[in-house]
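The authors assume throughout that readers already know how a fold can be written as discrete tokens. A single example would do more here than another paragraph of explanation. An entry of this sort, consisting of the sequence and the corresponding backbone structure tokens, reads as follows:
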Amino acid sequence: MTTSKRAFLLLAAGLVPPLVLATGRVQAADEPPVQGEGRTLAYLNDLHNKVHRAWADSFLAMAAARLPKDHPVNLATRAVVVELVLARGGRLIGTEVSTPSGSSEFDTSALDVVRDNAPYGVAPEEVVSDDGNVHVLWTFARDDRQCSGLQVRNVQRPLSQAVRSLLAQGREHVAIQRLQAAGDEAREQGFLSFAWAWLDRAEVDQGLAVAAARAAGGDHAGEKRLRQAVEQGQDVETAARGLARLAIPLCPLVKEKLEGPAGEARGAAVAALGFGLERECLPGVLAVANDRSAPESQRVAAAQALGTLDDPDARKTLQGLADDKSPAMRAVALLAGTRPGGGRGAVFRLTGLLHDPAPEVRGAAAAALLRTGGEAMVPQLFQLHKEKDPRPGEAVAKELGAMNGAASAEMLGKLAHSKSDRRVRLAGARALAVRRDQPARKALATLAGDQDAELRFLGSRDLEAPKRLAAASAPGGHGWRNSYAALAAGLGRLAAADWALAQFPKLDAAARVEIMAAWLAGAEPVGK
């Protein structure tokens, strides 16, 4: 029923229209202005202007002119609060009385005014709630307030639900703002929802990377895609890493190519097995490792794969490859063939290799020494501080990152604070960030005041929120993905989330998938 019909029934058939001024307005006290700021105020004014004539100049005027003064509609204090739900484009989704006036006729007339004047204008982002709609509380009054009492009701969902809803609506920047405004604990958990929801909507051309990222979080949804990639030799390392995370055997997918002729297909098969070699494929990998005519890259990959399987034949082959003429092969075989608790003989042999002419061999020997002897071997690495090549420092930092004692943490702290190559400093800091022990945490915190912005970021995890966010928001920080991944893998996940949210708008699609994978890999694989 239209407003005019409603008013006609209320007032009585045959009554003459109300007296109006030349402007079309009934003479009355001035209506208060609509309240608000910026685009919100402009939007509320548009809503008000759409219904003002129907309410103030029609319904209220007719009630004043034609109904008795003591009629319930004419009670001076009469006011109803109506809640509107509007689509962002202006469509009226629903109306209801939030606070009744005490007069059903008055309340129904207010609802009719709102419905009869729909649709409304397009809403700005500022007034849109988590559900993608606009919720407005609108007071329709009998007194001088008339219909000027509008306010936006911001309807918020729990953070994790809100993030998913906002991304589904294409409101990524709002989801990021919500996360940044949340408390520390809620933000860290909310970012996990953000990661899953963003991957749900990721670009089609990132399909394989998305499948691998989901696998990092324990989700099997992309398993078929990953299997196909490994079988077809497409981006094998990405796909194999994802399948290994899901504990999917790799050998059945590559065995035929591994035992086939030398070439790219065999090389891809060997590379895949670097993420987990099963005994069924051991003969084929041994053959590649011992094939002197094979490309060095394939033989190195074979040695790395042999290191993932605890097998006598694999160990024997790696011992032989440790004497290969290629420094790269010697280095890989040396470290891959080293097991914890190797004894004095292994320590003696490895100590001698700390002076090898090849820097990659010196690095592998130092890392292997730590692997076989643990924390007790840290003092043996004093010559590392004299290294001019960054590779030995990087190799040692990686191995120290897998330890959890005070001596190894102190060593990493010295690498991170050293005056040597920046690569070594970053490697030391990242290794500290990956660790979850208290000595490493203390050592990492000392970097919070470093002059290097990326090192400050790595040392920021124990800072108060404003300082942590400042460290994560550095203008050039969008290139710090490896440092972010280190924090996400350890106890610095809150600092990592701060960085991801601050830098996300600057990252391309491939980088975004990469950081989601790192975040999910550091989370408990409980699915979505």
Summary: The two ends are 48 Å apart (CA to CA). Residues 7-28 have pLDDT under 50 and may be disordered. The CA atoms of residues 366 and 381 lie 7 Å apart.
